Amino acid sequence: MSLPRPLHAVIAAAASAAAIVGAVALGPAHLASAAPAQDLPSVDQLRSALLTAADLGPDFTEAAPSQSPGPDGSQSPDPNETPSPVSGCDALSALVNMHAAQPGLANPRAETELDGPDGNPMVTEALAAEAPDRLAADFNSVADALRSCHTITFNAGIGDTVTFAVTPVTLGDRQDAPAVRLDGTLDGVQLNAFIGIERFGTVAMAFGYFQREGASAQTASMQYRTAVAKVERTLGTTAGSTTPPTVVATTQGMRV
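The structure corresponding to this sequence follows.
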């Protein structure tokens, strides 16, 4: 059975939101130099820090990956699919489209999608590790792109587009953590999303919460806080910190 038309738009927005952390990890600074793997959390460690269905409740399930992960944990582009076009918010669109066009690189990265009943709501989270100075530059570029965004348009994947109004919000406990709320409609159905990014030393997180026929920020904020707390607990670092996690990969294994 085909998905409801508004859900296609939500999925298109979710895919682009997940690409935001890819834009952090694949920015120009990253292409110039990569940190030694032993100085960064491993892919497995990043995966262990991601939200799971058990973290969100019995109504959630983990979505099956639509693409095969590359050796760095990233998703390789499907040659049979065309990335959903994004327009508006020139700086943010450029970052998202750049990520969609590039293959995964060497730095560790992991992501997940968790769906509520019939895909509503949808939660996405992505974690990427990068050398501190590179991550700072790339993270700031994405943060500036979010702050300068007022409207953004996604292709719904079925010949329709949906334009979202973009409003800055605070999702978690840190007032300085960049986050935005997106509001739009398709075929008279209300679509709503929250996107936030956070830094944990050498790890960047992108979080997305997407819902249709609802506009409450309470659940999005609660789940964002759950995501932040799990990363802090698993990697041994704090949100907003420039200090690398205390759990990192080594050539001999893991150390704490």
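Residues 8 and 102 are 23 Å apart (CA to CA).
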